[in-house]
Design goal:
By secondary structure, this protein is an all-alpha fold. It has seven helices and no strands.
């Protein structure tokens, strides 16, 4: 629920939203880094996504009490979820194909595919949705328009995914395709 704010209050609200997001993001990655030292890449990824989920929900409930369901976008229907998943897959598959075909691979990550698939298809979407489209987007929409909030959240989502995928290739084309794909998914999920 957005309130009418003057410019100074909007800027303050945006910085608070970004500050909350940065704290959760950094703390989650610290937890993941420690877990990764002990259990490897899968353990790090698992820890980061669990931290995203738990910290986003705790923050929303603590700061926004009765409004947290609205803020976090927890008023969805099965039909809307199916639509978002379908659109996301349809838009992600061509970009993934282009990235793999057009950009040379510099490194291969040796990870068990049986462990990686549930992480990428189940846990990561939950953690990232709650952090990016729940907490960050919800906080931003309290201060600025829906589309501006979606653009900011999607841009941050895309920028955050660049380092993770630069392992595969550091070519400009690959970076552009990764950014474009993540940004597109961010806009679709935010809409």
């Amino acid at each position: 629920m957005r309130v009418s704010l003057d410019v100074r209050s909007k800027i303050s609200c945006i910085f608070k939203a970004l500050g909350i997001w940065i704290l959760i993001f950094l703390f989650s990655n610290l937890i993941g880094g420690i877990a990764g030292q002990v259990g490897g890449l899968i353990c790090a990824m698992f820890s980061i996504q669990i931290a995203f989920t738990v910290l986003s929900m705790l923050t929303a409930v603590t700061l926004f009490r009765d409004e947290y369901r609205y803020l976090m976008g927890l008023k969805f229907t099965f039909k809307s979820m199916v639509k978002v998943v379908a659109i996301s897959l349809i838009s992600a598959l061509p970009l993934t194909y282009l990235t793999n075909i057009l950009a040379p691979t510099s490194h291969q990550i040796q990870v068990s595919i049986q462990l990686l698939i549930p992480m990428v298809l189940i846990l990561a979407p939950i953690g990232e949705e709650l952090l990016f489209r729940g907490l960050l987007l919800g906080c931003l929409m309290r201060c600025i328009s829906r589309w501006r909030s979606i653009m900011i959240s999607s841009t941050i989502f895309a920028l955050i995914h660049l380092p993770a995928f630069s392992v595969y290739s550091e070519t400009l084309l690959t970076m552009f395709l990764i950014f474009a794909g993540a940004f597109t998914l961010g806009v679709i999920a935010g809409h």
